[in-house]
Amino acid sequence: MTRGQMLELAAGIAILGAAVGGAAYWSRATPGGRPAAFAVTRPAEPLVATDFELVDLAGRTVRLSDFRGRVVLVNFWATWCAPCREEMPALETLSKDLAPHGLTVVAVNHKEAKSVIETFLREGKLTIPVVLDKDGRVAERYQVYALPATFIVNRHGKVVATVLGSRDWVGPDARDYLGRLLNEPEA
User: How many Å is the Cα radius of gyration of the chain?
Assistant: First the structure.
């Protein structure tokens, strides 16, 4: 390869890299042109959330369909997952602050013993509602392959967003996003 061809190849790679980087940046942008601070993945069409029936820490049966008419954050987590542990206090704060406005947070623990979960909650002084996915079947149905994973279900029982990884659930961008969902009519 000649020196000129190598320079052309290097320039082409640089241009391609800039194009990919720019596309990644602008794909996160809001209509106003600034990057979206609260990133969620939205399906082209909202999907009906798969109903589930799990038991909470007190032994009560909890179904996703019990919360129809509310906005629900279904958060899959585990105590061994560092990002999960970090976002749990924020999810609890969000739950307490927005429950009166129609938000329900359901923390679905992935395959851990009840005693491990209770110890974690007690040590963190957390009271967030937790249900037990003992065999991981609900996580499989939701195609959860990494934790934390959160599915946002609107008042009509449809998944309108998926969040992979942890987020700042109490920050202004998350509250703005959830506020818009909470303000949607129920009918």
Answer: 20
Q: pLDDT digit string (tens) for 131-173?
A: 999 999 999 999 999 999 999 999 999 999 999 999 999 999 9
User: Distance between CA 71 and CA 27 in Å, rounded?
Assistant: 26
Cα separation, 97 vs 136, in Å, equals: 29
Residue with tokens 């957390």, as numbered in its chain: 126
Q: Are 107 and 91 in contact (CB under 8 A)?
A: yes
pLDDT digits 0-9 by tens, 23-69: 343 333 344 444 455 788 888 888 999 999 999 999 999 999 999 99
Taking alpha carbons only, the member of 135, 116, 40 closest to residue 78 is 116
User: For the domain bounded by 37-182, which CATH number is listed?
Assistant: 3.40.30.10
Report how far apart, in Å, the C-alpha atoms of 159 and of each of 44, 63, 131 are. Answer: 11, 15, 19
- 112 burial level (CB within 10 Å; 0-12, 13-18, 19+): middle
Name the residue type at position 20: V
Q: What are phi and psi of 74, to 5 degrees?
A: -100, 105
Whether the full predicted model's pTM is greater than 0.70, yes or no, is yes
In the chain, where the domains are located: 1-36, 37-182
For residue 99, the SS3 value is: helix
